[in-house]
Amino acid sequence: MIADAAWPAFDPALLIDDEVTIAVQVNGKLRETMTAARGLSREDAQALALALPKVQAQLGGDTPRKVIVVPDRLVNIVA
């Protein structure tokens, strides 16, 4: 009988997402978002952000002066 069934067990590991959405800004304006694995290194996040087509269009072939990476949240590119 359903009244005699046990409650489901709580598993806190299921609450943690494996992927995060990272905002990509160029000169302080949001240009793109990307989905990446949680815990991605700063160098890998920067490389992924610089490879995005919209970011490449905003940079116009120039090299960025500064790249600020907030892990699992934001990549800000100053052109």
Core attributes:
79 residues, alpha+beta, Ubiquitin-like (UB roll), four-stranded mixed sheet, 2 helices
Task: Write a compact overview of the structure shown.
The chain is of the alpha+beta class and 79 residues long. The chain has a single domain (16-78), classed as Ubiquitin-like (UB roll) (Roll), CATH 3.10.20. Helix content is 20%, strand content 34%.
Describe this structure in words.
The chain has 79 residues and is of the alpha+beta class. It has a single domain (16-78), classed as Ubiquitin-like (UB roll). It contains two helices and four strands; from the N terminus they run ββααββ. A hairpin with a 3-residue loop joins strand 3 (66-70) and strand 4. It is rod-shaped and about 70 Å long.
What would CATH call the architecture? Answer: Roll
CATH topology: Ubiquitin-like (UB roll)
Number of strands: 4
Characterize the biggest β-sheet: 4 strands, mixed
Provide the spatial order of strands within the biggest beta sheet: 2-1-4-3
Question: First CA to last CA: what distance?
Answer: 66 Å
Q: What is the domain total for the residues? A: 1
Helix content: 10-25%
CATH class: Alpha Beta
Structural class: alpha+beta
Percent of residues in β-strands? 25-35%
**Are there runs of 5+ residues with pLDDT below 50, and where?**
none
Number of helices: 2
Kindly provide the radius of gyration, computed on alpha-carbon positions and rounded to a whole number of angstroms. Answer: 19 Å
Mean pLDDT across every amino acid position: 93
Give the overall form: rod-shaped
**Run of helices and strands:** EEHHEE
